[in-house]
Amino acid sequence: MIESVGASAYRVPTPVPEADGTLAWDATTIVVVTARADGRTGLGWTYTDASCADLVNGMLAGVVVGTNQLDVRSGWHAMQRAVRNVGRPGLAASALSAVDIALWDLAARSVELPLATLLGRVRDRAEVFVDANGAYSVGQAVRVGQRLAEWDVTWFEEPVSSDDLPGLAHVRARTSPDVAAGEYGYDLPYFARMVGAAAVDCVQVDVTRCGGYTEWARIAAVAAAHNRDVSAHCAPNLSAHIAVATPNFRHIEWFADHDRIESEFFTGVLDPGGGTVAPGEAPGHGMSLRHDTADRHRLR
């Protein structure tokens, strides 16, 4: 029986200012969720605003505490109902994701299985790739994509905004590299619309935003039904466990900012040396929070 669920928020400065194609930042906020039952602790997290912790503590914890720790999907559906009136996309999806991840970790630890095994492992390792963040117009993206083909580039991530499905489909039809998008998707219908519009060759799923491991599995099934691959966006040490349980999985984005934070905050993180990661045999995802380190960055 789940005895408690709680969340804390931490703000970690970057060593130097960082930026991608559309945004710059000098710190990253991580919200860490713990779920406890029978002397065991499950751990999940998401990268979002600190107010996400209040949503977990004030709304989601109450609907899963007291439920069977092995019935994760039931808890997921209860949380899905609980956030209906606050809106599922965005902050609520991130909160739901972090709790779902913690519950799956707790379930795996409860039966002393690696998380990847409980999720249905189908491969030993997952490839690691490194990343336009939607910065181009459609015309610019087509021109860039055509030049990329000359250099044998095979991956064109978010050439235009992930919300511009006609634009993505236009770029995909006129360029050779595989088009990928979806890292800002918060639920299954978002990805169903994306693959239904023939907008991408590969959907990018962020396990800390999409609804956790439970929703990831449903998204991957929809992608497979459309003969599309799945790629993991960020949170690499969480993504790897569901990645090896996804038959149509392609690779993990190994984001330096998240890797730095996860290596600092948690024991048992994965090693991407050689370009692949392999989840181990420890129960759950095998990671634990370094409380002394994390508390130096605590917001709430």
UniProtKB/TrEMBL annotation:
<keyword id="KW-0479">Metal-binding</keyword>
<dbReference type="GO" id="GO:0000287">
    <property type="term" value="F:magnesium ion binding"/>
</dbReference>
<dbReference type="InterPro" id="IPR046945">
    <property type="entry name" value="RHMD-like"/>
</dbReference>
<dbReference type="InterPro" id="IPR018110">
    <property type="entry name" value="Mandel_Rmase/mucon_lact_enz_CS"/>
</dbReference>
<dbReference type="InterPro" id="IPR029065">
    <property type="entry name" value="Enolase_C-like"/>
</dbReference>
<feature type="region of interest" description="Disordered">
    <location>
        <begin position="276"/>
        <end position="300"/>
    </location>
</feature>
<dbReference type="GO" id="GO:0009063">
    <property type="term" value="P:amino acid catabolic process"/>
</dbReference>
<dbReference type="InterPro" id="IPR013341">
    <property type="entry name" value="Mandelate_racemase_N_dom"/>
</dbReference>
<keyword id="KW-0460">Magnesium</keyword>
<dbReference type="Pfam" id="PF02746">
    <property type="entry name" value="MR_MLE_N"/>
</dbReference>
<dbReference type="InterPro" id="IPR029017">
    <property type="entry name" value="Enolase-like_N"/>
</dbReference>
<dbReference type="Pfam" id="PF13378">
    <property type="entry name" value="MR_MLE_C"/>
</dbReference>
<dbReference type="GO" id="GO:0016052">
    <property type="term" value="P:carbohydrate catabolic process"/>
</dbReference>
<dbReference type="InterPro" id="IPR013342">
    <property type="entry name" value="Mandelate_racemase_C"/>
</dbReference>
<protein>
    <submittedName>
        <fullName>Mandelate racemase / muconate lactonizing enzyme, N-terminal domain</fullName>
    </submittedName>
</protein>
<feature type="compositionally biased region" description="Basic and acidic residues">
    <location>
        <begin position="289"/>
        <end position="300"/>
    </location>
</feature>
<dbReference type="InterPro" id="IPR036849">
    <property type="entry name" value="Enolase-like_C_sf"/>
</dbReference>
<dbReference type="GO" id="GO:0016836">
    <property type="term" value="F:hydro-lyase activity"/>
</dbReference>
<feature type="domain" description="Mandelate racemase/muconate lactonizing enzyme C-terminal">
    <location>
        <begin position="92"/>
        <end position="178"/>
    </location>
</feature>
